[in-house]
Amino acid sequence: ARTLVMDVDTGTDDALALLYAVGHPDLTVTGISCVAGNASLEKVVDNTHKVLDAAGAPDVPVAAGARKALIERVQEESAFHGEDGLAGIVLPDTARTTSPLTAVELLRQQVVAADSPVTLVGLAPQTNLAMLLTLHPEVTDHLERIVFMGGSASVGNVTAVAEFNVWLDPEAATCVVESGIPTAMYGLDVFNRLTIPEEHARRWAASEHPAQRLTGELLLRRGARADGLTEQDYVGGIGDAGALVFLTHPELFTVGRHPVRVDLAGLGRGQTVVDRRPVSYDLQARSADPWQTLEVVLDLDVQQAAQAFTE
Length: 311
Ligand code: BDR
Ligand code: CA
Prior knowledge:
Elements lengths: L1 E7 L3 H12 L3 E8 L6 H15 L6 E3 L38 H11 L4 E5 L4 H9 L7 E7 L14 H5 L1 H8 L5 E4 L1 H4 L6 H8 L4 H12 L19 H8 L4 E10 L9 E3 L17 E9 L1 H9 L1
Calcium ion binds next to α1.
């Protein structure tokens, strides 16, 4: 099994990702850190515990992290997932307790204590990850890879060019992108395209099994709040959970290796600039500047990836 630590801002699609990660026989989640993003930090932590309950997860430690970005506070919370972060889905109270450690310390401990190299999965603004990598560079030796949902090689969602997770903390994203750790970017080029057929979602939502039922309800509600859509307008995107499907089924995705930088200034702030030129006319040698080559997920086999999630 592959050992994972996850950083989340749960979030309807972070919830789907947690359900998938905890339920997948080849993945072992050893720690979960929370950050404000889709909802306030308190709600993100509470949602994470409740989703783990529904998933029937073992006692995975969950810690609270950053409430705001490193530099610029852009917003309180996102409207897309509702004020509660779970699009109004009410889950039973939880008996799980939050770790007394900070998110950064929990991540550090779980990463350095692991017997084999760990995959760090980021599904949220990257403030906790940036602090981990900056305060504890020794984790680098224990990390196999970072896989983050964020960014885009094409269009943005919050702005014309910036994706939400990167836009909320572009300086933090810079720390991750420039860390030198092997990193895969699962961005908007694929994020909205991995959808589950409606009949599956409706069947799961009617299930007695808590994890199946929550998966179905989340899928039915996702998109229901965006742009005035109602629950009848099924969208069915699994969002962040796709980054986990990429981890378990890389053969279903097309990946390019491209230099990437995060734009920090002005109109392009929060854009992941992906250099896909076949030939460049740069006057300065690329080796002299801090562009890091990342794996950029660019395309996928939608049907097979949906099938993998369903199984
Ligand atoms: C990202 O922003 C959040 O709304 C989702 O959870 C996802 O991580 C998409 O831009
Ligand atoms: Ca998220």
